[in-house]
Amino acid sequence: MMYTLLAALPILFFIARRITNWTRNYISALKYGLPIILLPVSFEDPWWLLLRPLFSFISYLPFNLGHWYLYTTMGWPQEDSNRSLLKYGENFVLCSPRSNILVTAEQGVLEAVWGVHGKGWGLQEDQGQLFAFYGQNVSSTNGEMWRRHRKITGLAFNEATMRSVWDETSRRAGKLSLGDADGKESKGETLGNVRKTFDLLAMQILTVVGFGQNTDLTDVPPGHQESLMESLAFILQHIMLTVIFNSLKAPDFLLPNALRRLKVSLKELRVYMQESVLQHLQSVKARPEGVKGVSLLEAMVRANEASKQEQKTGGPRSYLSDSELYGNIFVFNVAGYETTASSFIFSLSYLAAHPEIQEWIREELDMCYNNSRGSDLDTTVPDYSETCHKLVRCLAVMNETLRLASPAPMFVRQPFAPTELLVNTPQGRRSITVTTDTQVGFNPYGAHLSPQWGPDNLSFDPKRFIQTSSSGEERLVVPEGPLFAPFMLGPRVCPGKKFSQVEFVAVLARVMTDWRVEVVRDPGESEELARRRLLAVVDDKVFHISAHLKRPEAAALRFVRRGLQCEGACF
């Protein structure tokens, strides 16, 4: 009995401490005068990341007893859509034993925290370090350290890099095998299989444009156990496993196959990055001054070396260490891979449900390409500087896709000192003091699907981002402020924003030039019912670093060469 009690003491102490912290946080949350959602566990609990899938039954408990389970993952906005906004309002508090998080979609609050004047706010340290296992990076740092990272990485995303993205993406998109040549025999592919196609495309682009290595999937150089693409693919496709177990030191014989493979891939990718940095350093020294590299890593190395030359003796370090270069190239790969693959599966699904938007895009493409497609585009890539900026409808499709299916989770910031915020509460507008033990979380879906977008806020309509002048010229318009912020707000806006936009436009332009995308209908299903079923599948999202489909096998798309008719093959 005594031994049992002694063994239970750590557990009892753990529970008592959490209840104490939870009570303290609840009392603190009451002062905000906002709706409070009580969470016994939080996504800030590392152990919960592992155990959460085992407790999915909680969300099905009767009498709404498990309503809190949704909010125990950082990506709850993907599953929630704008339901919490409509139920609780623009502001509410998630109260757990770990912390209080003031969740907001209110424009004024977002401007104050993330806008140009939000210098008193920074990343929460633990969350900032999630992807820093290769080195500190632009997404893991605050203050002067962040400014140093931002300067170097910002210089790397130059027009030479964008041209490289455009050229490589256009070439590879033109080689995509999306359907039969005649378009008559294809039965279609599930959304899961379509996602795999664009996963591979994103990976190929990253290895070439990110690392500057045009390697085959199975090309393993001497001294390596895996190819660059194999190691990068395994890490990115098992990113949560990587976040949790990246520093695991256990002997291989004690580990399951997945963790053994993870150790190999992590080591291999580090070696590849070391080799690439060394190779690009030599290239920078060998190439004439002023000649810019075409890969992101080479551009980053070149900008870093230039900063070293400008370094003032005795001054603060203005350049990045090798580990910081690794950290940044890795985090850009994570963001680039997920954004590309995620945005395309959603955009193609929306386009399949809206064939009229496909025709609207093709009007722009045919005009831009002078009605030339097929043989010309098979041998040449349209010039980046002459073409990309004209494809505003393609970019509008990207914006509307990111509005409805944002890949971003709930972003959080923490004040460096107690800070006053003016917020809307159920009792009216009032000023509250956010203390340093409270975080503020940006609910992107609350903003993107806000009623402020109008009565069609839940509908797919990329034309909302297009403004036509009296002369008939179209230009892209984006609402000012945080109502639309897929790439974050203020000074910390994603440095890879244009990279992602150029990549998306290049792929969409080529796919829509060659193909028509359709919904695959079930036997006896009407076109309208198939469309509704597809949109229901697309609306059923889950977070895994970005937005993913819960049921990717429940709907399918069919790609038909332009100019060919369906002739019943899609039924």
Helix-strand blueprint:
Elements: H1 2-30, E1 36-38, H2 46-51, H3 76-80, H4 83-88, E2 91-95, E3 100-104, H5 107-114, E4 121-122, H6 125-128, H7 143-156, H8 159-174, E5 189-190, H9 191-210, H10 228-237, H11 239-245, H12 257-286, H13 296-310, H14 322-353, H15 355-368, H16 375-379, H17 384-387, H18 392-404, E6 411-415, E7 419-425, E8 428-434, E9 438-442, H19 444-448, E10 466-468, E11 474-476, H20 497-514, E12 515-519, H21 527-539, E13 541-544, E14 546-549, E15 556-561
Parallel strand pairs: 1-2, 3-9
Antiparallel strand pairs: 2-3, 4-6, 5-15, 6-9, 7-8, 10-11, 12-15, 13-14
Protein name: Cytochrome P450
Organism: Neocucurbitaria cava
GO molecular function, one term: iron ion binding
How does this structure look, described?
By secondary structure, this protein is an alpha+beta fold. The chain folds into two domains: 24-130 and 410-445, no CATH class; 145-400 and 486-561, Cytochrome p450 (Orthogonal Bundle). The protein is built from 21 helices and 15 strands. The chain has helices at residues 2-30, 46-51, 76-80, 83-88, 107-114, 125-128, 143-156, 159-174, 191-210, 228-237, 239-245, 257-286, 296-310, 322-353, 355-368, 375-379, 384-387, 392-404, 444-448, 497-514, 527-539; strands at 36-38, 91-95, 100-104, 121-122, 189-190, 411-415, 419-425, 428-434, 438-442, 466-468, 474-476, 515-519, 541-544, 546-549, 556-561. The strands form five sheets. It has a six-stranded mixed β-sheet with strand order 1-2-3-9-6-4, covered by helices on one side. The radius of gyration is 25 Å and the shape is globular.
